[in-house]
Amino acid sequence: YEYERVVSVTEDIEVLVAIVRSIMIVVVAMIMIEEENMTMIDMNVVEVK
Predict the structure, then answer these.
(1) pLDDT tens across 16-34, in order?
(2) How far is Cα 14 from Cα 10, in angstroms, rounded to an integer?
(3) Domain extents for the chain?
(4) Rounded to an integer, what distance in angstroms lies between the CA atom of residue 30 and that of residue 20?
(5) CA–CA separation, 48 vs 3, rounded Å?
(6) Which among 44, 41, 45 is positioned nearest to 33, based on CA atoms?
(7) Which is it for the CA torsion 31, 37, 43, 45, positive or negative?
(8) Helix intervals (H) in the chain
(9) In angstroms, how far is the first alpha carbon of the chain from the final one?
(10) How many whole angstroms separate alpha carbon 7 and alpha carbon 37?
């Protein structure tokens, strides 16, 4: 009984880790896209000047 409980807990943890990992990937991608957009805007401003 205890063993089964431990297995279910570890499975829950694995699911949580997968969810957190996917969220982190999305956040990093958004940050990278935002930084790219910022650099593009900076370049445009420099070109306008």
Answers:
(1) 999 999 999 999 998 888 8
(2) 6
(3) 1-49
(4) 15
(5) 67
(6) 41
(7) negative
(8) 2-48
(9) 72
(10) 45
